[in-house]
Structure formats: structure tokens, C-alpha cells
Amino acid sequence: MTPLQRPTDLADQEYLTEEELAARQDEVAERSSLDNRPRTETGAYNEFWMERGSLNRRTSLVIDPPNGRLPALTEPEQFRQTQRTDSYIQARFDSWLDFNKLDRCITRGLPGAMMPGFYNHNYQIVQSEDHVVILVEMIHDARIIPLDGRGAPDPQLRQWLGASRGRWDGDTLVIETTNFNDKITGRGGTTFGGSEHLTVVERITRLSEDTIDYEITVTDPTVWTEPFTVSTPMSAMDEGVWEYACHEGNYALPNILSGARAEEREAAGQQQ
């Protein structure tokens, strides 16, 4: 419900008043409801499937820069974005490689995997003496984070979610992640990552029995003109996470590809 970036109508307002919070809660729920959208998509979800949560008093999840907006992309990255072709940008379906990494059930990357969204954006955190594991329900990523002081792996080893190393700063767990690959090309929203130069620092602090303060700082000088920090408070659930069987019964990819081939044959026949 709380947007990643601050809405333009709230300008430099960091927090909502209690009155604004109450008024905006219903307004945002009404505006975002899938039940109120034209039913033009085949098999699209309705609001029954969504997990909206509720607004918090912050006007954006981005807390730094102070304007609540993501920093500008670098000029080289702006050009790279104009060259992107995937299923979230244009209807080009030459092969399965044209589909977004989320559509292909690979990962949402970092910071994407730790961002709230529409459904299944839940986490199970398991702690032992020398490791913490964060199980991400969406696309079933499991982040295994050593706490034993080991360094980062060889720079040539690149991974979808990078290599995470944790340490304690008082009661706060600090996780630094490096060694990313450059295969997540989305720069905001659901599938969200950086380049091989990306560094992510997370700070996780338990505030109470059922509340965690979670902050994530993203730095990639080849993608964004400055670092940014996002705050997403986490609340305890009454039940565990569910299995995310992403491709079970998923006919979308073969059907979209076969439909594209059928359209091509039809177009070729018309040209003849």
C-alpha cells in the first residue's frame, strides 16, 4: 500500500498525519483494487488474490534521498534501458529468453526479493549460532547468510542474489551482499536489481515480539547516480510461508510462444 517512491502530490512531506492516513487508506485501496479495472486481460487476477496490507505513516518506502524518490539513472544506464527487451516492456516473444526473470520463475533479484508487493511477499527468518537463513516465499529464494566472519568469495563468482555476509552491530543484524551477476535488468518495481558493481547493505532490528525494522541500502555507481535506502517495516504472521510452486500448472510461457508463432503464420499467409 505504501509506494516505493513518494507520490508527487505529497512533495516533501515525509509522514502522513493521522487524519491523512485514515483518508488515504480507503482512497489507495479503492484506486489499487483489481476489481475496479477493466477486465481486458485473459485470466488476470482479481482482488481476492492480493495481499495489500495497510499504509504506514511514511509517504514512501524510500527514506533516502530525502525526497522519497529513487535517484536518477546514470547516462550509460539510461541508454541500456532503451535497449531492453522483455515481456514487461513490449510484446516480443521470439523465445523464452524474452520473458522477465519473474515470469520465468528464476528470481526477483536484490533488492527486489526483499521488497513488498502484491502477494506471497512473506519471509521466514531462521537463526542458528553461525548462520541466518531468509526464506523468501515469492519464487522460493533461500538466502543463506554466514555470521562467522568469513570474507566474500572470489570476485569471479557471480550469483543471482550475490554472496551475503552477516555481522551483529549491537541488536542489529547487518548483512552486506556483493558478487552479483548482471542478469537482473529491472531498476524498480517487482524484479529489481543492479549490475555486477552492486552492493547491498541490510539492517534488521527486532523492535518487539512481532515487529522488525528492516532497512536496505543499495549502491551501484554504474546504475544510479547515488545510493538509496528503503525502509519496509515487517510484522509477524500467524502462519508459516507457503510453497511457491511457480511453474506448477503454468501454461503461460508455452501458450504465449505458440500464440506468437500462430500470429506469425497468419501474418505470412495474409502477405501472400
Task: Give an account of the 3D structure.
With 272 residues, the chain is α+β, with helices and mostly antiparallel strands. The protein has 2 domains: 1-68, no CATH class; 70-249, no CATH class. Helix content is 16%, strand content 22%. It contains 3 helices and 10 strands. It has helices spanning 18-32, 75-82, 252-271, and strands spanning 62-64, 123-127, 131-136, 141-146, 163-169, 172-178, 199-208, 211-219, 228-231, 234-235. It is globular and about 75 Å long. The model has no long low-confidence stretch (mean pLDDT 88).
Give the helices and strands, then pairings:
Layout: H1 18-32, E1 62-64, H2 75-82, E2 123-127, E3 131-136, E4 141-146, E5 163-169, E6 172-178, E7 199-208, E8 211-219, E9 228-231, E10 234-235, H3 252-271
Antiparallel strand pairs: 1-9, 2-3, 3-4, 5-6, 6-7, 7-8, 8-9, 8-10
What is this entry, summarized?
The chain has helices at residues 18-32, 75-82, 252-271, and strands at residues 62-64, 123-127, 131-136, 141-146, 163-169, 172-178, 199-208, 211-219, 228-231, 234-235. The protein is built from three helices and ten strands, in the order αβαβββββββββα.
